[in-house]
Structure formats: structure tokens, C-alpha cells
């Protein structure tokens, strides 16, 4: 069993972080973070499936696949270094060189991530100056991790952090992480940017498998606006400093590690969905009794991404027809005359539909339930015994306002 603790990406032993205001795009706030491990780490990663991939994605994917080890991650907010061609890849190489010199590492030990406006060139002089400033002031612990989480935000209104501990081989193992993501969130692998650290001793191939195992039911089950980013990156580093018996096969220790990792990823995913651009509530969709896990995931995401449903949630309108419609165009075949629909929140639970037909429910009660900060739609398909949960948010006027002038 794992235990939730305070902290984030710097909670695990042997990891230190820094932050700085480099002035890359923002002039009045921090916009860079640096994560460093005291020893070499097994490195795992999942990346965007968007055909248009940012330069840092290409850089990281090569290192994870070819080397499988790393020591540091440099992150900047404000400019994405996407659609910048060979210039962008050159900036990646020079950024890694700067970090390597500042930290006494090889460039191939440095991973990179960027988020922000597409098509702009990163100012290399500011990037390198920021790395130098951070390298001289690296710290561990929850306060340092929190500051780093704030440094990677763009349109986010709050930092996203999570950490857990568990016991493996009689040793205390920690997993912690930070993420950013508020808009352009419709992952097809993970999320905008996410960085997870652990002091667990585990083989790189199993670390990669663990990450790939938890992504489908966590990061791949969130959506804010249906747009899959060019920069989606989730990196997981494990330095082995917990000194547990190295996990080299899929045994009980591996399964316990996967469950704890899933808890961290699930928490970060829900935090991102709740902080969707302009959002006023977290919208959760639970599909029950589907024929398979795959169909349950498809159905849940179809509802959570429906613009009409999201607008109805914002208006506190129990318009169940939009939910049934979204289920119907998901691509999953089911019997609509067997579906039951419910809304629930901290203010109560109400059934709206039974066997595909509306019940004589109280609109006033339904509206009151929908005014809560977290609203859940429950879709009972009565087709099997599989289930899935997706997370999103309502669609508000502020979403349009934010994205109408994002580049300014």
C-alpha cells in the first residue's frame, strides 16, 4: 500500500530542483525550472502522437529510446520550440551543452521540455543564463518542488503536484511529480508536461512498462478542449537511492510500484482537468458495465469531450440528451434502450434516465447538484462488467477569452 504525502517532484531522495525568472516570454514571473539527480537515473518517457512534434520531444525521445538514462531536465515556459525545424533542434543541443557545463554532466544526460507559443524561437542567451542561475541554487524538499511547479505554468492558475511513499523490500520508496496543463489538453499518450521522480531501484525496461501501463487510465483519460499538443511529454526518472532490492521482473514489488505510480499520475491528471482554461468545475464521467475496458474508455472520453455537454455543465443544465448523443457517436455499438444516466456531486445524486427513457426527476434538484465544483455523470451501459473514468471541465466564456489573444 502507498501513502499520500506532501510534496512533488523533489520529494524523492537524491533529487534537487531550481527555478528562475529568465525572461523568455514572461517579464514578471518565473519561467524556468531545472531538475537534477545526484546519481544516474533510469529514464522512461511517453510523448505526443501528434505528427507535428516539438524539438524537445524529438530530443527526449531519442535519449529515452537509445540510452534509457539521464540526470537532469531543463524546462521552460512561454515558448514551445515547436515548428522551428533544424533551428529548434540546434537550440536543444546548445541548451543541453549549457546545462552539461553548469552541472558537470554529458549533454546526453540532459532532457529538455518546453511549453508555450508555437513557432517562436527560444532566446538561447536567456536560456543559458537561466540554467546558470538555477544550477548554483538547487534545493530538495516540498518547498523547492512547489516553486519549480509554479515555474513551468503558462495559462495554469495553480501548480500541480503529487507524491506518495510505499515500502519495498523493507525500504521507504518515494514517487513524486509535477505537471502543467490547462489548455491544448487532449492527450494521446499523456499530457502537456509532466515530470515524475522516484528513488526506487528498478530496471529501465520495467520503468518504461510501468509508465506505459498507468498512462491509459490516467493522463489519456483527460481532456479540456480536444486539442493534442505538439509538446506532450511525460518523463519518469528513478535513481535507485532508496536502496531497495532492484526490481528486475514483474513481481509483487513491481505491482506495488505500478499502483503507487498510478496514484501520482491520476492525481496530476485530475488536477489538470480541474484547471482547464476558464473552467469553473471538474467534470467527471464514469462509464459502468461496458463490454470491455477499451469500449468503456472510448465512451467516457466521448462524453467528457462533448462541447455541448461541457456547455450544459457550465450552465447547470441537466441536459441528459447531450450525454446520450455523445455516447451514440463514440463509435461503440450498444443498446440505447438499456442505458441508465445519473448526475452526482457533493450535493447529492439523481437518476435522469432509465432504460433509455427520461424519468420524472426534479429539474431544480438536478440543477442544484450541477452547481458543485465537481460534477460526475454516470453512464450505466448494462452491456458487461468493464468500467472507465474520464476527467474534463466545463466550457465557459473565459476559455474563448483566454485563447482569443493567447499570443499577445
From TrEMBL:
UniProt catalytic activity: N(2)-acetyl-L-ornithine + L-glutamate = N-acetyl-L-glutamate + L-ornithine; L-glutamate + acetyl-CoA = N-acetyl-L-glutamate + CoA + H(+)
Family matches, as InterPro entries: Arg_biosynth_ArgJ, ArgJ-like_dom_sf, ArgJ_beta_C
GO cellular component, one term: cytoplasm
Enzyme Commission number(s) from the entry: 2.3.1.35, 2.3.1.1
Record-marked site positions (Involved in the stabilization of negative charge on the oxyanion by the formation of the oxyanion hole): 115-116
Name assigned to this protein: Arginine biosynthesis bifunctional protein ArgJ
Gene: argJ
UniProt key word Amino-acid biosynthesis: yes
Any GO MF annotation of the entry: L-glutamate N-acetyltransferase activity, acting on acetyl-L-ornithine as donor
Entries under Gene3D superfamilies matching the protein: arginine biosynthesis bifunctional protein suprefamily, ArgJ beta chain, C-terminal domain, L-amino peptidase D-ALA esterase/amidase
Family: Belongs to the ArgJ family.
Any one biological process term the GO annotation gives: L-arginine biosynthetic process
Active site: 191 (nucleophile)
Subunit structure: Heterotetramer of two alpha and two beta chains.
